[in-house]
Amino acid sequence: SEGVTVAELADALDVAANDIIKRLFLLGTPLTMTQSMSNDLVELVADDLGRKIRIISPEEENSFSFYDDPSDLKPRPPVVTVMGHVDHGKTSLLDAIRHTGVARHEAGGITQHIGASQVEIGGRQITFVDTPGHEAFTAMRARGAKITDVVVLVVAADDGVMPQTIEAINHSKAAGVPIVVAVNKCDKPDANPDRVRQELVEYGVIPEEWGGQNMFVNVSAKKGDGIDDLLETILLQADVLELKANPDTFASGYIIEGKLDRGRGPVATVLVNRGTLHVGDAIVAGMSHGRVRAMLDQHGDNKAEATPSDAVEILGLDSVPNAGDEFRVFEDERDARALAEQRALKARIEEQNKVKHVTLETLFDEM
Ligand code: GTP
Ligand code: MG
User: Fold this and answer.
1) What are 264-267's contacts with CB under 8 Å, separation 24+?
2) Cα–Cα separations (whole angstroms), residue 21 to 53, 265, 341
3) 91 is in an annotated binding site
4) Residue 316 labeled ligand binder
5) How many angstroms does the Cα of residue 310 sit away from the middle of ligand 2?
6) Whole-number Å distance between alpha carbons of 304 and 239
7) C-alpha 89 – ligand 2 centre gap (Å)
8) Which of 289, 249, 295 shows the shortest CA–CA distance to 270?
9) Structure-model confidence comparison of residues 263 and 12, the more confident one
């Protein structure tokens, strides 16, 4: 069955279902609560109720891949995710990278954790997404979220390839994301970076110097050795990808992290994929919507706008969105609200169906 039912529309418009049934009858289309309505009929009834609605097609809802005119595309910075086996030094590496960036950017500044960090190397930006562990990566990919351009695979030189190293390789390959290998802990006496290279060949991750596709860098997150080299390598990899986006349109992208802040209300870290996000924009993120009240960078400084590959914290949503939710800006706040409500309604119906399903099973169990 296509379209929403009478009951669903009543719910979405927050009016009594009987009121809608009455109007449908007067329009010459008698329907019951559970019968579904055509889009035309939905618009007619809404109009009759003095409500203006816009029906959004699934195509429109998934319009991230809208084809931009190539002449509108401009280079954008890479978005990078760090993955690897437990204890191989992912967090230490990010700390070392952040320290490099922060030290250059604003000496002594306190860096706030916003689920992403941006560093500047020789005037070029790299955005690191901190969140995805392997599970988060899978979940986001399952939802179609494109959240990373490059994976930095951290492998400890004293430990070599381990189960989660292989898992990370599989995730990256499935997502079609290139891997830069950071062979970490090279300061350790028992470090054997060449063994790591040999082991990885088995999994199709082959060093460029051996004729493969992958760039390798020996680092020590602990001592800070090789970090500059790694950042330059990431930029080289990014150059190969020729990353581009159209900055001159309504912003869209993904939620990296959402939380409820006692003082500030719902706070979301967003990654902009396309367009430019401004303070004041009408935005929908998953089932939340609102106007961007304030936008902050990782240093807690206010930003007026965020362009493709920027990660910023935004305030102003009416509820907390989930990591992996898409966000997008609408010209009209009512459209943002309509989409958020439509999604909430869909989620409620799915939830109800789930409950029914469980009840039925329980019933059978009892019989
Ligand atoms: P999980 O988040 O638990 O998966 O670990 P992780 O990959 O983030 O590793 P983390 O950065 O927490 O480092 C694990 C341990 O390795 C810590 O004790 C670090 O101090 C140590 N370590 C990380 N990098 C280096 C390094 O370059 N050299 C040495 N010697 N130790 C390191
Ligand atoms: Mg860690």
Assistant:
1) 264/315, 265/315, 265/317, 266/315, 266/317, 266/318, 266/319, 266/320, 266/321, 267/313, 267/314, 267/315, 267/320
2) 18, 39, 21
3) yes
4) no
5) 23
6) 28
7) 7
8) 295
9) 263
By the 8 A CB rule, do 216 and 251 touch?
no
The residues, ordered by sequence, that sit 6+ positions from 76 with a Cβ below 8 Å of its Cβ are 243, 244, 245, 247, 307, 308, 309
Instruction: Name residue, tokens 């990660």.
Output: 311
φ, ψ dihedrals at 319, nearest 5° = -155, 175
* Contact predicate 327/145, CB 8 Å: no
Question: How many whole angstroms separate alpha carbon 143 and alpha carbon 145?
Answer: 6
Question: Residue 147 and residue 171: Cα distance in Å, rounded?
Answer: 13
The residue type found at 121 is I
What is the token pair recorded at 3? 């379209």
Residue type, 59: E
Residue 116 near residue 298 (C-beta atoms within 8 A):
yes
Strands of 79-84's sheet in order across: 116-121, 124-129, 79-84, 150-156, 179-184, 215-218
String of DSSP letters for 259-316: EEETTTEEEEEEEEEESBEETT-EEEETTEEEEEEEEE-TTS-B-SEE-TT-EEEEEE
Closest-lying ligand 1 atom to the alpha carbon of residue 154: 7
Beta bridge partners of 328: 252, 284
Quote the CA–CA distance of 211 and 173 in Å, as a whole number: 19
Q: What is the CA radius of gyration of the chain?
A: 25
- Ligand 2 centroid to Cα of residue 339, in Å, is 36
Three-point CA angle 245, 251, 254, nearest 5°: 90
3-state DSSP assignment of residue 116:
strand
pLDDT one-digit tens code per residue, 82-124: 999 989 998 889 889 887 644 344 444 444 556 788 888 888 9
The conformation of residue 132, written as its DSSP 8-state character, comes to: -
- 11 token code pair: 């719910």
Express each pLDDT in 270-309 by its tens digit. Answer: 999 999 999 999 999 989 999 999 999 988 899 999 999 9
Q: Measured between alpha carbons, how far apart are the two ends of the chain, in Å? A: 31
